[in-house]
Amino acid sequence: MSQASTTAHDATLSVERRSGFWEGYRKTLKPLDVEEPVDVWIHRPIAYLLTRALYPTSVSPNAVTMLSIVFGLVAGFALFSSFSGHLVLAGAAIFLSAVFDCADGQLARMRGTSSALGRMLDGTADFVVSLSAVGGAAWVIWSKHHDSWWVGLIAFGLAAATAVTGSFHTGLYDHYKNLYLHFTSPSSGDVEDHVTARRRHERREPASSLGARLAWPIYLFYLDSQASVVLGYDPETSARFAELPAYDERRARIFREHMAPLMRVWRNWFGFGSLVFGLAVSSALDILEYYMLFRLVLLNALFYGWLRAAQRRASRAAFDAMGLVTPERSEAEATTAAVA
Fold this sequence. Notes:
Radius of gyration: 22 Å
Number of strands: 0
Largest sheet: none
Distance between the termini: 88 Å
Shape: globular
Low-confidence stretches: 1-16
Helix content: over 70%
Order of helices and strands: HHHHHHHHHHHH
Number of helices: 12
């Protein structure tokens, strides 16, 4: 083989290897319609390298989830501490927690081993990590401004309001992501509502492991709270996935037409990945109060202003166009008829 042919052959192999790498990466993702850009471009590529290393080992996706929780707790510890470099450590720990949070699902998809327990632990991990990191961030903000008690009180109150509304942001994104997957993806196995989870808990609790027993109360509380927030924000949607019809091409096309534009807004601004990435960067740079103001003022203006009204219109239009009545609306109409 000539030198030129050898060079061309090596270049072809290099392209194939790169193509195989990125093709493998794409297969570990959820549909891009619901993936957060910060995850696709930052968290998940790093997580994919980790999953490729873990793939041939006996390390389970659930063990990776536990590492995500550990890093989240380390971040909380660092935020509540005052040693030199504690905010940089907190930012690094939050970032690594997000990477491991992505890696568990990617590893499960690579192995084809997604499970109900894995989904439960993943939801529990998000709740614990956000509580640890956001609570720690509120403490940092209060610590910087508490010399005057009333200024400290205002700062803490604003941080607490940011934490609460931030949980609404991520909970609503998670709901619309799951609803989108339910109607547009033939394999929406990751979707579980509170009623289904509670029934599964009642049926399988006696055989659950210690880790599952500890996670169940947190997971059920998260799903129940999420359902209440969802229906308060958008009474035209449904939080009971199990009672909705399964995937159908016609419904998928209709739902995507009405929901895809708003799904872009949800995944760009209100997902869990966006929240923790902002916390990681602002913590490392010691500008947590500015990130708080950004979320409290600008994101909430979008969330409660234009987006809520637009989402309600889209939900109503999508269900009407599909010829469906949500279980919640059906119950409300039946109750009204019975009272009349």
